[in-house]
């Protein structure tokens, strides 16, 4: 498992604190962190988790860095008693790693064999009324959201709405909330919750009767919620690092450009395009047209 991150500079006193549910071996930019064996060591996971601290200044560099962790079952998922009546997964059945570089958390979890990622944008009013936008399918490049496509009659829509409704009601939440799921074995596993308007919901600006932004304001100000119905077939494409030539983007039919006015920088979301088309075939063609304008590393 791995995570990439970007540093503006390296100060010379960077410390990595790391632990795992299982055994780990860690690398930064291809070089091993420390020389300890069988880390983080045995512990009673019911009460505590051991961790290590390492000076990793010499392993880091300004710009993009890569943290990689090899993870094994260790004592966490090992079998207790090897002969009669063995107990599998002594403390748990899902290994994972936890790391922090300075004050920046770097949490890495066990691998989930998912077939896709979807997100659900929900909005809940002060009186508890809740509405949902169609599930969107997300595609990432280098760990950053690249494309979100709004679905039509997704088979997991009702299940996602049930999960999110329970969270919203339990929190007595008001406003827009985004919930990311992995598609696993025909079902859903929660990946991330964002208590705000969300990047994967930007397609609603042109692609829905009432955008996620307007509905958020309606909810928190006590106004009636707007319709979350989809208009045609819609998608959102992020511009990462730089925005393609504006004239070329707006020349694509059915395309709406949103330029954030940010300084261009590697790994930064600096704009997006939304597409709203009359049918899915047209949408697919226009997605390809916009993608052809984007330079990929």
Written account of the structure:
Helices cover 15% and strands 38% of the residues. The protein is of the alpha+beta class and 297 residues long. It has two domains: 2-109, Jelly Rolls (Sandwich); 116-291, ATP-grasp fold, B domain (D-amino Acid Aminotransferase, Chain A, domain 1, 2-Layer Sandwich). The strands form three sheets. Strands 9, 10, 11, 12, 13, 14, 15, 16 and 17 form a nine-stranded antiparallel β-sheet that branches. A four-stranded antiparallel β-sheet has the order 1-6-3-4, with no helix packed on it. It has a four-stranded antiparallel β-sheet with strand order 5-2-7-8, with no helix packed on it. A hairpin with a 2-residue loop joins strand 3 and strand 4. The protein is globular.
């Amino acid at each position: 498992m791995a995570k990439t991150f970007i540093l503006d500079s390296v100060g010379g006193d960077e410390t990595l604190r790391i632990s795992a549910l299982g055994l780990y071996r860690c690398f930064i930019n291809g070089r091993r962190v420390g020389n300890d064996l069988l880390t983080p060591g045995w512990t009673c996971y019911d009460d505590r988790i051991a961790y290590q601290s390492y000076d990793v200044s010499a392993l880091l560099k300004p710009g993009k860095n890569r943290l990689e962790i090899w993870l094994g079952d260790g004592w966490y998922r090992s079998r207790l008693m090897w002969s009669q009546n063995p107990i599998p997964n002594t403390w748990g059945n899902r290994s994972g790693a936890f790391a922090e570089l300075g004050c920046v958390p770097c949490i890495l979890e066990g691998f989930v064999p998912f077939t896709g990622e979807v997100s659900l944008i929900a909005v809940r009013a002060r009186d508890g009324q809740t509405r949902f936008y169609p599930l969107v399918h997300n595609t990432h490049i280098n760990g950053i959201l690249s494309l979100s496509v709004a679905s039509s009659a997704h088979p997991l829509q009702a299940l996602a709405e049930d999960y999110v409704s329970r969270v919203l009601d339990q929190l007595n939440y008001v406003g827009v909330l985004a919930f990311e799921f992995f598609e696993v074995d025909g079902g859903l596993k929660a990946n991330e919750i964002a208590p705000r308007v969300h990047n994967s919901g930007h397609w609603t600006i042109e692609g829905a009767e009432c955008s996620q932004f307007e509905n958020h304001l309606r909810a928190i100000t006590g106004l009636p919620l707007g319709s979350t119905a989809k208009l045609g077939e819609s998608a959102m494409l992020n511009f990462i690092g730089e925005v393609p030539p504006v004239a070329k983007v707006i020349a694509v039919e059915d395309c709406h450009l949103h330029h954030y006015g940010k300084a261009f920088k590697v790994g930064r979301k600096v704009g997006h395009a939304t597409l709203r088309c009359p049918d899915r075939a047209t949408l697919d063609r226009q997605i390809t047209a916009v993608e052809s304008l984007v330079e990929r590393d």
